[in-house]
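Title: [Solved] Serine hydroxymethyltransferase 3D structure

Original question kept below for reference.
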Amino acid sequence: MKDTQIYNLVKKEEKRQKEGIELIPSENYASSEVRKVLSSYFVNKYSEGYPKKRYYGGNENVDTLEILVQERAKKLFKVPYVNVQPYSGSPANLAVYLATCKPGDTVSGQALVAGGHLTHGHFVSATGIFYKTVQYGLIKNDIYSGRVKDLFDYDQLKKIARDYKPRLIWVGATAYPLVINFEKFAEIADSIGAYLAADISHVAGLVIAGVHKSPVQYAHIVTTTTHKTLRGPRGAMIMVTNKGLKKDPELPKKIDMAVFPGLQGGPHDNTTAAIGVALNEAGHPGFKKYGTQIVKNSKALAKTLIKGGIDLVGAGSENHLLLASLTKQLGPGGGIFAQKALDLAGLTLNKNTVPDEPMSPFYPSGIRLGTPASTTRGMREKEMEFIGKQILKVVELIRNYRLPEKKEERKKYISSFQEVMEKNKDIKKIKEEVKRFALRFPIP
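Solution (posted by the thread starter after getting help):
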């Protein structure tokens, strides 16, 4: 029996993705082979436990599958252990806390407003509720100048390490456009005997492609999602490195116990299978070319935006991501206007806090954008110039809008802005241009 309501929504979403340009750096297009396996018969199976140690029968094929996927991940990332069962990145990271800390232990991670992730100890996350967190940020000066190619405030982190002795330190970001120097974080963590966990969810595909440093030599634990630059399904993995095994030979067992039964029930075997397909694709030579082109495209897009007067954190990009401050153009909190207007123009990205954010995470002053999805569609430097110019056009169209200072006025003002933009002829014209452009580049 066909569910026309759901099917129609699927078709609408397919149309939206084909006719627009996806610029959210944490999104990508999984291949048709990945999607095929995601809806395979593995979706029907319950497999609580681990290979050869299941609570249910009928898992002989699941056991073979999970071991195969583990081996593929170990080979690609050059690690001795991997758990492929986490449902997504957040529970994977929480499992690291369960495996290495006790509730109330002190941990440290990059602050959300400085480009970090909720699960690196932000106060609204379970990781900030059940653990004592002291977070580090970025340097205060030269954020946009390009003169500094490493923006982390290592002096601040050293002081945190010295004064608070965190048991676990996180490195890895969701909004950081430069290559991360994992070795510097390792030096600080090692100086106090802390675990160092590297969350490479954003750059995992770039690490495999060889265009971003790998943390495996420096961290004890590495976590990653599987759907961003890795171009797989929405899942996650936790890896223990040789350095991690040396620190605690029981660490793999502790990770396994944290994932199941600590946090989850049975794994999603269909997702495990799809991760395996994605890892196989990432092992082919073409994937290295793909990762290299992602970075080339980011640099090209950055060049166009900077030429148009946009301030970029780090004055550009060294990975897949750009973080732009629109304070000059739209004032504090202007990111929300940019996101909404660009969305209506068929250019999907997200509002985002910027270093020394003058407003708040709810009304941030910047936008975050990236090139993994557009690169998957075959777009190159020339196409990035087109995309950058359309973004500049939209930002110019909304220059007169400002977030009200009074909080009670903001909701109504933003709603009114949305209504005006939906009728704006220039926005509609840009959307048509974007649509014609996008349809030249099919999605998988």
